[in-house]
Model the fold of this input.
Amino acid sequence: MAGQAAWKSTAAYAGLLAGALVVGFAGAMWPGAPLDRGAYDFMFRLYRPAPWTPQSAILAIDEQTLSAYGGIRGVRTALAKGLPILAAAAPKVVVVDVILADHGADPKVDADLAKAFCATPNLVLSADMTAGGWDMPLAEFQRCAASVGQVHAAPDENDSVARAISLEKRGFRKRLWALALEAFRLSRGAGIQEDTAAGSGLDVGGAIIPIPYEGGMLLRPGLPERTGRLMRVRFLPPPPAMEPIPRVSLKAMIDNQALARAFTGKVVFVGVTAVTELHDRLTTPIRPDIQTSGIEIHANAFETLAQGLYLIDVRDDLVFLFCLAIAIAMGVAFRYLPGWWAYTGGLAILLAAFLAPYLFFTHRVVFPFAAPVSVAWFTFVAAAAYYHLVVRRNWHIERASRTRYQQAMQFVTHEMRTPLSAIQGSSELITRYPLTEEKRKQVAQLINSESKRLARMVEVFLNVERLSAGQMELKRETVEVDAMVRLCVERAQPLAERKHIRLTLGEMGEDLRLTGDRELMEYACYNLLTNAVKYSPRETEVTVTGTGGDGYVRIAVQDQGIGMDQKEVKQIFQKFYRTRKAEESGEAGTGIGLSIVQQIVERHGGRIDVTSQPGAGSCFTLVMPAVVAERS
Ligand code: ADP
Done:
């Protein structure tokens, strides 16, 4: 019984925690995880990787250049002038992030630009995919380019923060690699191999670019790219943590050619940085306050590739396992740690859930923030609430039964004192004073009956303990119900007479028999009778009946006494419980009689039914398996 109850409460507790886990996990993963993005950007600013020297540089088409060359239309002229100067400084790769899909106003400028391109080794030109198809560089420009890369920065649809780029873009029967990836492969003088031993990664001259898990946070609903091999960009920490990617104004370089020395041996990204000309209004995790140009994002993506500083999203199923571990740890903490230690342990787990994503981040793994934290919170609250309510309640019950036990013990010692002092007094009487023979006999009888009462009392208490410990052996005798009930009525008669209560034997079925321990069954029956008498006012009636049927024997004791309400009826079988009215009645009692009766009856395979109404009386019925009468 106790084991089953414990198992049930454990199952309820585990179920509650499982519910908290599911709600916490689903709630955190469902809405496209805005918290995760915020936490990601925060960690990005918090954690600084070891600084390195940038291998790229930016040749900026800035405000100064645009105003000197007549706005965006003058960009081709500026490029045609600037590129030969740049080429003379021997850069490693030159990436031009300007879309040159159609002819300019002046064919002479286009011809000059094409010439400048042909004089630039390791040149990467740009293409972009629009709704109508690819905007590819004109054939005359493309002729001298080493390759063409696509310029798509993959900003987050929700907040326009560029956290990743698409390494590839497919469409209109063409697939182009990212500008940064083309630049990286040219800088290594290698090709791009797709089938690596590592699976879905890309192999660029032996350098493996891992492709992030396609179901990860980056690709969750609400985010732009579902395909395209996203790569998280490890933006350079801002100064003073690290020197920035060198940047020179195109106009300044044309005016002062010595500035081109900054580009020697570098991978140079040429593009528009003038804020007025930026089409996409993008920010980066590292600078949420200012707009960043596409060319800077490409240069940072190149640095990520060149340094191999990849950030990989952890798989959702692993995140779930982690959350499961949190839920289990939380459950164990509240189950096994005592009192405040449970709360301390719970808070420690909560803290661990907060810190885990950052720890992972420092190891280049992007772990969602919301899921573990919300699971930790939900399970913390669930476990704490469960323990607060359930454990408190159990504690109260236990304390109440302890108090009752103490009161019962006081009563017992008090009750034992009465027969003891009677025995003591009587024995002194015999030894000290010469008594008549008749008086001696009387005193001896008193000693005898009082010591028997004492022995019975001790016996009852011992029986309770043995029965509840399951140590008591039951005898298996055939008990004639009629005879047993008559005996009990006879015994209880003096008690009833004292209160002028009529104790009557009502209907009694013939040949009713049951199997069991006669003495214990008598005890049970007698106890119901004495209770009925005890808890009834004077001048009332107590009726006992015995009936058979359905394979059961029913021994019912009906009184017209104080009665009980339903709540009280549910508790009377607990050890030491007494109703308030019983206490107030002035009748002596311990509150254990019925608990013994119940145990006896259950050990015999029967049960007790109780119907009662306050003030109207009660009926206690023993329902016992009958012995089928043998027909001769
Ligand atoms: P005790 O009689 O020693 O108090 P029991 O275990 O026999 O202990 O009974 C438990 C309680 O159940 C009683 O204290 C009383 O409140 C209630 N009870 C038992 N029998 C009756 C009855 N016939 N009528 C009203 N209340 C009863």
In short: Residues 370-432 form the longest helix (63 residues). The chain has three domains: 1-49+314-472, 50-308, 477-625. The chain has 18 helices and 24 strands.
